[in-house]
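Hey,

The postdoc asked me to send both predictions to you directly instead of through the lab channel. I've kept everything plain text so nothing gets mangled by the mail client. Protein one:
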Amino acid sequence: MRITVIGCCGSFAGPDGAASSYLLEHEDASGRTWRILLDLGSGAFGPLQRVLDPADLDAVIISHLHPDHYLDVTGLEVFWAYHERDDLGTLPIHAPAELPDRIAAVLGRNGIIPDGVSCAPFEHHVLADAERFTIGPLSFEPRLVIHPVEAYGFRITDGTSTLVYSGDSDECPALDELAADADLFLCEAGYIEGRDDHFTGVHLTGKRAGECAQRAGVKQLALTHVPAWTDPQIPLAEAREQYTGPITLVRPMDILHVHP
């Protein structure tokens, strides 16, 4: 599995990058490359187009309905609904149940069919805790994590290697279970100790991300979702005090590889 970091800025798009979005690519036994987008937050649809033609996407997964994780799905819908090609079909989107209503509200319409077209561009699939699903050769296990809205982390495997994506979460047993023995743990670290402790049930600090990775025995930790107002070296240093394995601080357009 290969992950291209489309955007990794926490809570809102920053001056040097978009909000959360990660392109997951994996080649199956026949040589076909599957392309799945994990989140498409504010500002991310633009840089996504520098990496691939969005028409080549096989599916999109939205971890939760905060704008920094889903808002640019509205741009993707415009692309998919009005594209000059007529062979795109419908694009599967796995997300919390309210996503279609949120898209319609942002675009000022009723229902899931865009103005002027005859069919919906997206095929909506509702996420549920511990209900696994597959996309091509990849298996996905969503788990409800701790956040102010319905939010999911994901355990993704091709049968030999495992990627875990925290989405947005504070520390919780479900996140520990997801991360157990993961080859790569792509984990948010939106807060820092001392400054943000009075916000509970929202985000991990670098310290708590490192503690989770250490408890879970992950092989590699990649920190993400650091907001523009935070020096990223602070959550990185916090995590290093807790986790003894290799740590990466992701940046836009980084490429991460998941190996067993």
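Protein two:
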Amino acid sequence: MNMPTSDKIMARRSDKGYFGPYGGRYVPEVLRSAIEEIEEAFFEEIADPSFNAELERIRSEFIGRPTPLLYASNASKLLGGADLYIKMEGLAHTGAHKINNAVGQALLAKRMGKRRIIAETGAGQHGVATAAACAKLGIECVVYMGAIDVDRQQPNVATMELFGAKVVPVYSGSKTLKDAINEAFRDWAESFSNTFYLIGSALGPSPYPDMVRVFQSVIGRETKAQLAERGVTPEVLVACVGGGSNAIGFFEPFLDDETPRLVGVEAGGIGQGKGEHASRMTGNGARTGIVHGYKSRFLLDDDGQVAETHSISAGLDYPGIGPELASLGRSGRIEFRRATDTEALEALTFLAKTEGVVFALESAHAASAALSLARSLQPEKAVVVNMSGRGDKDLFITAPLLRPKEWKDFLERELVAMNVSQGAKK
């Protein structure tokens, strides 16, 4: 499946970096020339047939596209309502949708002659994808990751390092994704002559929201074609929303149409109080602000500083939302809902037992809303949920919750075995 034509890209392109009242390019003067260089190169390369041909080859051979569209027949029967379909982005190489954007931006960086790539990561999937893309394309890779996320996503940290990336824990602030972004920007300001900052979500200063949407739109274009091949007209499309890259990519081919309904699902966390969730478009906790180089909806405290957030999923606890999604929510084209930690875990378990598919905790938030929608709709309707990632990475979070005693016993045995092994080497 081919990339959109340059005419379509220009038609979808932001208005001088803005989507309605949101977006823009709020960066230090030292970074302005670096961002302008990226903007010029991106729109030049995306119109170049040789760039698109190389990108399509990598998607096929390396990522494993197209990813399947699964009819969840068992779940649909149990729900007793609409048919449920799952776009299986978790089957892409590295286990999530993040690889689509990572490969696209890494290829752009290589054609620009950049020798080093830096990235931020929350749940670790963007970091893993970036590390893999850099290994494939032969580019040095440094990944900034909040210290809390490093602790709870050790399998992804180990994988990044296996791909040859340097993972830098960030101990400032809340020690999560927003702080990793801050550190990546500091690095870039000192190294932009040979460094490309590969942002993982549809946010940041222009042109990043445009770039990420273009590289992730492969999800939605495949889904639209796969549904058409089956003669299925979807009633609702559902995706989780942290920064928003999987959602904007999934929704992109449908944005100009009145149907289907588009539903974005935020992290409801453990409550509606301050620091208990990461919901920017639902509830009254967010307001317009400028953070990380762009204007959007953010969770801010009374002093205008970025507020604490919470989610069981490391990829949904970002305090802001991509500017295009904020604008589409403001216009009403995208409906926003929230799912709690408990609801996400319940959805994850249900689909694992009925369909043999383990959603990432981020994607499980979308699954929770999709299950609810499917129950409420008539049998002739269809609900499509984007499984933006698979749940392998969350084993150290889900196992202690689902089987605490067995997991504790396992870890204690492993610790004993590790100590014995290290003692034998001394």
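Summary for protein two, as requested: The chain is about 50% helix and 15% strand.

Thanks,
C.
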